[in-house]
Amino acid sequence: MAGVRERALAWLYHRPTAKVWSLLSPGILWLLLFFLVPLLIMFAYSLMPRGTYGGVEAGFTLEHYRRFFEKIYLAILSRTFFVSLLCTTICLLLGYPVAYVIARSGKWKSLLMFLVVLPFWTSFLVRTFAMIFLMRDTGLINSVLLKLGLISHPIAILYTPFAVMTGLVYGFLPFMILPIYASLEKLDLSLLEAAEVLGARPVARFWRVTLPLSLPGLVAGCLLVFIPALGSFLTSDLLGGAKEMMIGNLVQNQFASARNWPFGSAASFIVMALVLLAVVTYLRVKDRAADGGR
Amino acid sequence: MGSRLPKWLIALTALVYFFLHLPIFVLVAFSFNASKFSVEWTSFTFQWYRRLLERGDILRGLRASLIVGAISTVVSTLLGTLIALAVGRHRFRGRTLMEGLLYVPVVTPEIVVGISLLILFVLIGFPLGLGTIVVAHVAFSISFVVIVVLARLEGMDRTLEEAAMILGADEITTFWRITVPQLLPGIMAGALLAFTMSFDDYVITSFVSGPGSTTLPMVVYSMVRKNIEPSINAISTIILVLTTLLLYLSERLTRERPLPGTRA
User: Fold this and answer.
1) CA A140 to CA B82: how far, in whole Å?
2) pTM of the prediction?
3) N- or C-end of chain B: fewer Cβ atoms within 10 A?
4) A50 pairs with which residues across the strands?
5) Residues A86-123: pLDDT tens digits?
6) Closest residue of A to B94, CA-based?
7) Considering only the top CATH level, what class is B55-255?
8) CB-nearest partner of A106 from B1, B109, B246
9) CA–CA gap between residue A275 and residue A240 (Å, rounded)
């Protein structure tokens, strides 16, 4: 055994690059084979004609992307985009104040943080079911309203755009709170004191000091909500009716029932392109925020 | 500082917390309610939990999820820790490109991961089943392990390692006796994250699973779809308790008791 050990040491000593790559290669290989390569194959599929029994045939076509200019698919695309945008906005409006309060809450901080992280770790499926349990016709909200005599028939809450939006906000709000809290927590309080001494009123202190300094967290939070909302599938699947279809549901349909793999691949690639666009925007805003902070 | 927060801000925060936790609270409470069809509280019962034990599909799903979770956690933790060591401790060509590759899985929507892997497996003729689920789970959790372990690695004090080397320990001994023990909480936290992600995943799993490889979230999904009896509340409660426990463990590992030699 000792011989092997000595030889291994000598080998590592003489080849630092070999050492790095022996650490890296298993994981990187896995990511290349089972992440990057599948994405590339998916892209290739989106450019090939549809096969008769699912799958694809050899050839090249832009037909699947062209279909997205048809009214019905354009509607799904724009709905997905605007629903994600609205969800991000609502999460920001609710999440920023909460993150602010947590960052200023002193001894309650760790408890309040734990209560934000908890749903973050809770099964998304279970949380979506919790929404159904409240919203369905025989659910808690309708039962309570009936009991109070405020309504005479159950009102439709589930399978509406409202249900989908509520479900998305409920699901992704912690993603907004966490990064904003992280940047507010790091904020140098002496800057606020300086602003106060120099005569800035609370509102001005917030807009001129706190908000600009928390911008990186804010933008990161928006990204962390916008991306999963774009690709979301479970929420609209379980809380929305057929009318609330998002692009995630379209992708799922093409693979599960419609058996049009290349079209599903094209839809999926469009999601990926939107995500990359969001990431690039984030990186640019982050750079600018870093410059502006000086 | 606390007293200077405006009242409306505190009220809004309270409302948000209410919104975040009330649904789950209601869900758990009604897993103990005897009434089958209405949400009217009748009496306390454990019958929905007993019902779970009679359902073979739930037990089989749990078994599948535990097997997949255990294997994919071990593999992704191992591969992720190795990557973190390389990235955190070495400069090398292609490092930026590598970091880019690591962030792709973090930002890729689950549905995209699911279908692209499905296409790959069908293309190369790999039979769908527990094996393909494990491969997929490892693929999406490696990056998260790397991020968690790297965070710990970057907060570590290197002087202990240097001291060990100066005192004559070789590289391998130093690694096992100094680096690994210091890094362990990070590795454990990464493993817990990987397990939770695997145990929870429905979207990706539903694409790459085959006949006879139904995991627990897939069973729960079909129960939610059929919208039947409070057994769903019961199994949801069990899943909740389990993940809360895992979260608590990982909080303890990452926050408390910094090992000697780590910077506060």
Assistant:
1) 49
2) 0.87
3) C
4) A56
5) 999 999 999 999 999 999 888 888 889 989 988 878 88
6) A21
7) mainly alpha
8) B1
9) 23
